[in-house]
Amino acid sequence: MSEPLRTAPTISLVIPAYNEEKYIGDCLLYALKNGNGKFLEIIVIDNASTDNTKEVAERFEGVRVVREDKKGLTAARQRGFLEAKGDVLAFVDADTQMPESWATRVATEFTTADNLACLSGPYVYHDTSRLQRFVAKWFYWRLLAMPMYFFLGYMAVGGNFAIKRNVIERMGGFDTSIEFYGEDTNIARRAHEFGKVKFTLSLAMPTSGRRMASQGVIKTATIYVLNFLSEVTLKRPATREYTDIR
Fold first, then answer.
1. Distance between CA 195 and CA 167 in Å, rounded?
2. Domain total of the chain
3. Mean pLDDT across the chain, nearest whole number?
4. Could you point out which of 35, 39, 107, 144 has its C-alpha 20 to 30 Å from the C-alpha of 57?
5. Which residues, in sequence order, are CB contacts of 135 under 8 Å at separation 6+?
6. 243 part of a folded domain
7. Of the candidates 44, 154, 39, the residue with the CA atom closest to the CA atom of residue 102
8. 194 lies in which domain range?
9. Cα–Cα distance between 241 and 178 in angstroms, integer?
10. Is residue 52 included in any domain, yes or no?
11. Is 158 contained in some domain?
12. Which helix (H) or strand (E) holds 68?
């Protein structure tokens, strides 16, 4: 079982980034501004980028950029796990804008919550239409995600979660055979074997809704729900191929 840390944990912030020169600067600005001294380190995993992601990230003092040439989100997560030194590894996407209270909430939860293995929350889309934001908030998160979380006891969002290092170790690391879809559900399901996986709507993370805007709300929701259910029931994602939207 995953025991509470009781003292403030050290937290490594890991940001996987593939061709994110457009977003990574703002992501780091928010993380540095709102980290509130809770981050032991901030690591950007340059995941086989061919643009200026590395150069933009290296402009920020206190940020370490590590190159991972094997493209794939879980490959980047695994490299982050191997590089990071914290008791807790926090993962956000490169197009997120970290809220002021996020880092403090993560530190508090892992200090005080019994048997907490993994903590996560939803996305809040800051650059999509009002209708798309409404549908995501009320249909996807409240009507679909929360009932499934209460039924299963686990859920995680890949661009907004934190997990104990010793839980990742006991999981055997991240499943690098999964490149994209279903990887966050895989993490939550496996972490659940070693402690509590908490998903709360109060730990929201503002992010770009570019995938939803490009693919449409219905198609995006269908793909994510399909892969969520497949990972839960079959322990593997249903969709292998994915499109990078930048």
1. 8
2. 1
3. 94
4. 107
5. 217
6. no
7. 39
8. 11-234
9. 10
10. yes
11. yes
12. strand 63-68
